[in-house]
Design goal:
This protein is mainly alpha-helical. It has eleven helices and three strands. 16% of the residues are buried. It starts with a strand and ends with a helix. The chain is flat, with a radius of gyration of 27 Å.
Amino acid sequence: MAGKICVICGKEKRSNQLLRHKNLLLDTSFSICRDCANMVADFSNEDSVIEMAQFANIPFVKNLYIDVKRTSKNPNFGEYLKKIAPYKNFKTFSDSVFTTDHAEETVSITPELESRWGKGYNEEEYAYFENVLQGLIAIKPATTAFEIQRYVANVKLKDALDKAFMDGDSKAITALRKAYSEDSKDLGFDAVLSGNDDSGKTLGQRIQGWELSEPVPDSDKYEDAAGLKKYIEKWFVIPMKRTFGVASEKEVESLYED
């Protein structure tokens, strides 16, 4: 079965050796091979990962980049693609988030950090915890100290699950994945993994969701959506005011407008 030519190394590669890119400028004869993508995207150099993501038209998300660096024994572009795959709201490079939640790779260890996360972590680990926590707060702001504690526990569950994957502990992975999934759903964070996809809901369910979560429009253009106020004003209020001689010229003229 004929393959495609990698535009980086110039070699013909089989389909299972190629990257699933979204670069529409590459025709059916050319692609990007996995080996070249992993070689170009040096995870010790953030700019090189951004450049590879741009070339492949794949979103670059700062928090996920840091996540791969921290949790993978061999961080590469393939691992990054696995990490970003569940997030349906990230589709192409135009959806990239370069400074998500002001993400930093290291932070200064303070008593506040140690109180929140416990002692014994390095600067990079504390930075990762804080970045994930801020991401959760951005999705659903915490209003109480108890909610912050719940979020911290959720981040710790994710960290334990990541470490189980690194260690290849299948038993721990099963238990932690279930616990993390249930906790995320309980906190309402599972929506971020589906890109807030409501395509499977009925119209009534969508309207209920909008009523509970969408902001009330600030514009007054929605105040009389059915035109009832305008209708009553024109055909009842203004005629009554004209009858009693208190209608303005502008109001009288409006009676003859379409």
